[in-house]
Design brief:
The protein is of the alpha/beta class and 542 residues long. The chain is built from 16 helices and 16 strands. Bound molecules: S-adenosylmethionine. The site of S-adenosylmethionine has 24 residues, from helix 12.
Length: 542
């Protein structure tokens, strides 16, 4: 039997930090508090909490988290000098003060290595290498670049949003066409950085992987790989140095391979994340003599610098957990983590029937069938390709666990379901950008809400809807106000788009077909006016 928490030593715990889509922090906080029975701290885009070492693996079962880390050490009020070299020397010294044991203990609960990994070198080196300037790792800005006309803050923001949207759309169309599953997943990861809102306009935010600094010689010979957000990458493309071939160094098979990723946020640092990652990586190398690999790493060390706060973590996930359960991605595939958090907002009870009437590739019903297996999940879509993707995803999940879910072809505005037969209708509505059209939404949304009102049980029934088309949903909510009351709204950043999740509660009002027809005809009149009188077609093109 495990020791009661109050009798446990501090070293039997570890601090976990996990990234969460901005907007869902409190949903995930509640979930973690419920599952681990510990206080959870939530701040923008992340949650942090302590768990007993034995429970580390269970953290990965939290359905709403994207990436997860064990925090080895935090350093507050770090006084960064004005001189870049002095800052780099300071960062190198931090390596001595990191609680590597705690981090590696947690790491070993999830990953393994065929040799024991010492948490401290046999002989602690007195010197962790000379600090180097970041200009040694990448070329300074081309002076001609600076002559370019400066864009205002709002122009820059607009440009970035536009570029992110175009890139996201192009990537997804490409993915859907080619069916390159692995690539699809990787591209979605790029979106993840953008969606979690890590890149603040006000601050200088960077994310850099850099572990080529095997030795001072290797540092000068090798190259850096920089991973930045899609927007930043596009803006700075022209400034990026030409990629060189990474230097291969002698590998010691008894030692794990590592890389350092630096996330820097805040103004006034006389260094960039690339320099910080390179120097920190060099010092880690000099300390442990682990192998260095940017791609085939066993251990990923994360150096977070936020203003004058520094934390050093080890990654407990190799890829974002939002890819769970999906192998067939469509143009609007919803992240599994968003689906999980939406389902959490519905406060599902065992035995309830959950319906996603516009399921696309099935992210939501797959997640409910797996994580709420005491409920019954059903789903459908109007498009054949969407049904195929859902079936493919169901078969994929079925390879690793039992799943009870089927998918039906139907029209959300005319569901083949009995009145008051569902407990929860939950769906990710077409935004009218990649699927459907904004114009069609004026007709589709009220029709969908009215039909959901019919099939959902009065008083206890709920609906949970995700959309970015706020004007249309508000109009649809006003048309169906007799049947739905909005109880909660959660704003969400989806690839630069300001989306929102609406949690609706079914009123006590019984569905009345005549009333409903009257309300809908008012909504259709409104839709026609919006269209300028042209007939509305149900847009079924993905
Ligand atoms: C935003 S997508 C859903 C994406 C889905 N959550 C996923 O993860 O793939 C909206 C879906 O609504 C479907 N749809 C549009 N009009 C519909 C209708 N009248 N009836 C049923 N489904 C419809 C589209 O085919 C599309 O798959």
């Amino acid at each position: 039997m495990s020791a009661p928490i109050e009798n446990m030593q501090e070293n039997e715990f570890c601090e976990i930090e996990a990234t969460v889509a901005s907007g869902f922090e409190n949903v995930v906080k509640e979930d973690a508090e419920e599952k681990f029975n510990v206080p959870v701290d939530a701040k923008r885009g992340r949650i942090a909490f302590k768990v007993p070492m034995k429970d580390v693996k269970k953290v990965l079962d939290l359905g709403g988290i994207d990436n997860c880390f064990v925090v080895m050490s935090r350093f507050s009020n770090v006084n960064f000098p004005e001189d870049e070299l002095e800052c780099m020397a300071l960062l190198r010294k931090i390596v001595y003060n990191v609680n590597w044991k705690n981090g590696l203990d947690a790491w070993s609960k999830i990953f393994s290595f065929h040799h024991p990994i010492a948490s401290c070198p046999e002989t602690v080196p007195v010197d962790l290498g000379a600090p180097t300037l970041s200009s040694r790792f990448h070329q300074p800005k081309n002076p001609s670049e600076e002559k370019k006309p400066k864009l205002s803050k709002s122009e820059r923001r607009k440009l970035r949003k536009q570029q992110a949207r175009e890139k996201f759309a192009a990537q997804n169309v490409q993915k859907a066409k080619e069916g390159e599953k692995m690539e699809k997943a990787e591209d979605l990861e790029t979106v993840s950085t953008t969606e979690t809102g890590q890149h603040d306009d006000e601050n200088s935010n960077e994310n850099t992987n850099n572990s080529q600094n095997v030795s001072e010689k290797a540092v000068s010979d090798s190259t850096c790989t920089v991973e930045k957000s899609a927007q930043k990458e596009t803006l700075e493309k022209e400034q990026a140095p030409a990629p060189k071939k990474p230097k291969t160094t002698d590998q010691d098979p008894t030692k794990p391979a590592f890389r350092v990723t630096c996330n820097r946020n805040g103004q006034g640092h006389p260094f960039d994340s690339m320099g910080a990652a390179s120097n920190f990586g060099g010092a880690v190398y000099n300390y442990f003599h682990w192998n260095v690999s940017m791609k085939q790493f066993d251990i990923e060390v994360i150096l977070n610098i936020e203003g004058n706060e520094v934390s050093v973590c080890l990654a407990l996930t190799r890829e974002s957990l939002h890819r769970r359960y999906i192998t067939a991605f469509g143009p609007t595939a919803l992240r599994a983590t968003h689906a999980y958090n939406m389902l959490r907002l519905c406060k599902l009870q065992p035995g309830e029937i959950i319906c996603d009437p516009m399921c696309g590739g099935g992210s939501i019903p797959l997640q409910s069938a797996v994580s709420w297996n005491k409920c019954v999940s059903i789903c459908g879509d109007i498009i054949n390709n969407a049904l195929k993707r859902t079936k493919e995803n169901i078969n994929y999940v079925a390879q690793s666990q039992p799943i009870s879910l089927d998918v039906v072809r139907w029209d959300v505005t005319n569901l083949p379901l009995r009145t008051e037969s569902m407990d929860v209708c939950i769906t990710d509505l077409p935004f009218g950008i990649r699927v459907g059209s904004k114009m069609n939404n004026w007709k589709l949304y009220p029709g969908a809400l009215m039909e959901m009102a019919r099939v959902t049980r009065v008083e206890k029934g709920r609906a949970c809807l995700l959309t970015q088309d706020k004007k249309c949903i508000n109009k649809a909510l006003s048309v169906t106000a007799k049947y739905w009351k909005c109880r909660n709204m959660v704003g969400l950043n989806m690839g630069g788009l300001a989306a929102c999740v609406y949690v609706l509660h079914r009123t006590v009002e019984k569905y009345n077909a005549e009333d409903a027809a009257q309300m809908l005809s008012t909504a259709l009149e409104h839709a026609k006016q919006k269209e300028g009188g042209s007939p509305t077609k149900t847009d079924t093109n993905q």
